[in-house]
Amino acid sequence: MTSRLCIAGFAGSLTFAACAATAPRPQAPTHPAAKAVVAEEPLEVTQPSPLALYRSADAVAHVKIVSSRATLVPGRGPMPSVFTVFEANVLDAAKGTLPAHIKVYQKAGQVEDANRIYRVDDLEPVKADDEYLLFINWNSTLGAYVVAGSEGAYEINAGGRLRALAHTNTAAEVGARTLNAVKNDIRIANSDLQNGVKK
What we know:
Layout: E1 3-11, E2 14-22, E3 36-40, H1 50-56, E4 59-73, E5 81-95, E6 101-106, E7 110-112, E8 116-120, E9 131-139, E10 144-147, E11 153-156, E12 162-164, H2 169-175, H3 179-194
Parallel strand pairs: 3-8, 6-10
Antiparallel strand pairs: 1-2, 4-5, 4-9, 5-6, 7-8, 9-10, 9-11, 11-12
């Protein structure tokens, strides 16, 4: 609001008041308090080789993501953990027997509440409508599958080319191959394991 500053005085027998408009005082800007960031590491179940990754997973599936959302799951400590929970249609199973539709947890994503931002650094979450090759393990507590660490998810691009979502050596080796080549390797690796062949 504009205020007026007036100065009273006199000259001879005349009294006067000189008034001048004054600019409103600027208000100090208010900034919302910055939210605390709680950064988590991915589930680093790092495998020494693609072969170890193939053999350690309960199941390996070629899926198409139907829906996904980041959520907070109670952790072992005082802070919750961030997971991306997604529903997927199973297009093919290179290992294990799976239903046509599965629910999966991936240690990735970001969730924001009134006071904090919870996020998992250095790992890209899966996205709805995209196809992935997943290495997954059953979790009886959650009643769902969990992606086998940061090395357990690979985006499937045109021509069956894979793209790793993690940055480990094993993820890079798997991601450099095609979908069909990896599926074939998985079937051979698990056939060898069942027949007692060690490599």
